[in-house]
């Protein structure tokens, strides 16, 4: 049986954060009921399509899945296990936001086999949390974090953002040091991007956002690498760090350009060299499912060349880089035969480095990674 990852999108949040452009709606019981009903049906619709696959990872993401009543997560999980072949011990993650977890919810998650909790903290500075529109404080986070630990969650990711308005390298260092005290297994640290349609984009256009400059942003990134690596939380991807053995298996499926099925509004899938995207509109999503139609709005078959290119730049995100032998085994061609001139150019520019079996971004290459990826397009 072929391996696959499963993603389910829960597009509800208590309120929209000021920087967020994800598809998410504010909490509304009626909408949630209709959505979960549709999602359960979409799971059933894919049951036959996936009969040759074994699901190795399950990721319930959002939005804020932890705002759902736990019986809804229970129903979704039961439907997944009924519809698909699930490996014996899948990595099973749920995303959550501090302030939305309770003793009851966490116990139910644990009983359902959810073995990885991802918590959106972003910063340990309460002033910054308020300014970026988060619903929680540092105290809320700590209460939820220790509750999860006490209930027995042994694999916790904490999401952080740097380059935030009014944030200095000192603030960021404080956040990282607090994280280290928690002894968490996994950390994601992304630089803030100002996205279209967000509150921050409006403020940015009016010159009302006090953002760290490019140098300080890079400084914060390098600080994260230095502090986390030197404390045993090792960088394994441009923005992801973990203790040994705790890399996120689900996200590794994306970075290795392998198959995954995404269900729910705005979810994406990659199946048999074809990319699919579900509609971004929740009502359109619910209507399609009601009419027994897949809510897919784009279908993009990939040629062998596309697949090679995407594998190269996704793999280059990984610290260990792109496996030279892996590429040969997967595509039956040497990477140097396909991209020899580009590799030579990037090597000369000091953006990549090559050892006996891997091609990796250099420190400078990571800082300008988009420039490297574009080279392969
Ligand atoms: S909680 Fe996450 S998904 Fe929801 S609005 Fe904030 S950043 Fe977006």
TrEMBL record:
Compartment(s) of residence: Cytoplasm
SUPFAM superfamilies, sorted: Radical SAM enzymes
PROSITE patterns linked to this entry: RADICAL_SAM
Keyword GTP-binding: no
Gene Ontology CC annotations of this record: cytoplasm
Positions of the Radical SAM core domain: 1-234
Main location: cytoplasm
Pfam families reported for this sequence: HemN_C, Radical_SAM
Function statement: Probably acts as a heme chaperone, transferring heme to an unknown acceptor. Binds one molecule of heme per monomer, possibly covalently. Binds 1 [4Fe-4S] cluster. The cluster is coordinated with 3 cysteines and an exchangeable S-adenosyl-L-methionine.
Entry protein name: Heme chaperone HemW
Organism annotation: Maledivibacter halophilus
């Amino acid at each position: 049986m072929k391996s696959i990852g499963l993603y389910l999108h829960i597009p509800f949040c208590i309120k929209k954060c000021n920087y967020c452009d994800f598809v998410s709606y504010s909490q509304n019981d009626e909408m949630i009921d209709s959505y979960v009903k549709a999602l359960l049906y979409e799971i059933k619709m894919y049951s036959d399509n996936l009969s040759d696959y074994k699901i190795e990872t399950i990721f319930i993401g959002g939005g804020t899945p932890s705002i759902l009543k736990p019986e809804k997560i229970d129903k979704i999980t039961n439907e997944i296990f009924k519809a698909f072949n699930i490996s014996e011990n899948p990595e099973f993650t749920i995303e959550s936001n501090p302030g939305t977890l309770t003793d009851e919810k966490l116990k139910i998650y644990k009983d359902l086999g959810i073995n990885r909790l991802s918590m959106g903290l972003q910063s340990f500075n309460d002033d910054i949390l308020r300014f970026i529109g988060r619903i929680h404080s540092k105290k809320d986070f700590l209460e939820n974090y220790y509750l999860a630990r006490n209930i027995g969650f042994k694999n916790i990711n904490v999401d952080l953002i740097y380059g935030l308005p009014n944030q200095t390298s000192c603030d960021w260092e404080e956040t990282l040091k607090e994280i280290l005290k928690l002894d968490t297994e996994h950390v994601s640290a992304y630089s803030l991007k100002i996205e279209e349609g967000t509150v921050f984009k409006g403020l940015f256009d009016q010159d009302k956002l006090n953002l760290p400059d490019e140098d300080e942003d890079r400084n914060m990134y390098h600080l994260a690498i230095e502090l986390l690596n030197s404390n045993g939380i090792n960088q394994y991807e441009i923005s992801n760090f973990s203790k040994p053995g705790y890399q996120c298996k689900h996200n590794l499926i994306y970075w290795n350009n392998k198959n995954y099925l995404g269900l729910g509004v705005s979810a994406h899938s990659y199946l048999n060299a074809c990319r699919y995207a579900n509609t971004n509109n929740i009502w359109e999503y619910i209507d399609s499912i009601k009419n027994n139609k897949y809510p897919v709005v784009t279908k993009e078959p990939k040629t062998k060349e596309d697949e090679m290119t995407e594998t190269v730049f996704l793999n280059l995100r990984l610290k260990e880089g792109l496996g030279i032998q892996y590429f040969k085994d997967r595509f039956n061609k040497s990477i140097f035969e396909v991209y020899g001139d580009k590799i030579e150019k990037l090597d000369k520019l000091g953006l990549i480095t090559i050892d006996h079996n891997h091609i990796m971004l250099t420190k400078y290459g990571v800082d300008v990674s988009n420039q490297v990826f574009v080279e392969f397009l």
